[in-house]
Write a structure and sequence with these properties.
The structure is a single chain. The protein has about 140 residues and is mainly β. About 5% of the residues lie in helices and about 40% in strands. The chain has one helix at about 15-25; strands at about 35, 45, 60-65, 70-75, 90-100, 100-105, 110-115, 120-125, 130. The strands form three sheets. It has a five-stranded antiparallel beta sheet.
Length: about 140
């Protein structure tokens, strides 16, 4: 029996990557914010760059509270046709400004241990930060 094709070979794309890569293809507009989601932990690490970037280092521990808003400066999402097979293959980082003069990268989509596949790897994500969308489109 032949192994089944990967969903990316069949045209399925990673929706987290597609949505975040397509949100602002020309760059995040000035004044855009993200909000801390209700299920976020009490803190997260603020990084110099996403952790898979060469030379990334932790800058600080950022306290979080649901509803907290911070400026969004940039988005770094994985390939839309990513070939990973678990939640660990989802890659979403937001470049934020914590306080005036302090900025860094936070992991916005975090694999959780709530649900695991048969291979023991995570099959669910926790979204800690969500873009703030104005109903007026501004």
């Amino acid at each position: 029996m032949a192994a089944p094709e990967h969903p990316s070979h069949l045209g399925w794309l990673n929706p987290t990557h597609v949505i975040n890569r397509g949100a602002w293809p020309e760059g995040v507009p000035h004044g855009t914010e993200v909000v801390v989601a209700a299920g976020a932990p009490v803190s997260t690490t603020l990084w110099s760059a996403p952790t898979d970037a060469e030379g990334a280092w932790p800058l600080d521990e950022l306290p979080l509270r649901p509803g907290m808003r911070v400026p969004l400066l940039a988005i770094d999402a994985g390939a839309e046709d990513a070939f990973g097979t678990s939640a660990e293959a989802t890659r979403l980082w937001y470049h934020i400004a914590n306080v005036p003069g302090e900025e860094g990268w936070v992991q916005a989509a975090v694999p959780t241990i709530v649900d695991n596949g048969a291979d023991g790897r995570s099959s669910s994500l926790r979204l800690d930060f969500l873009p703030v969308i104005n109903a007026s489109g501004a």
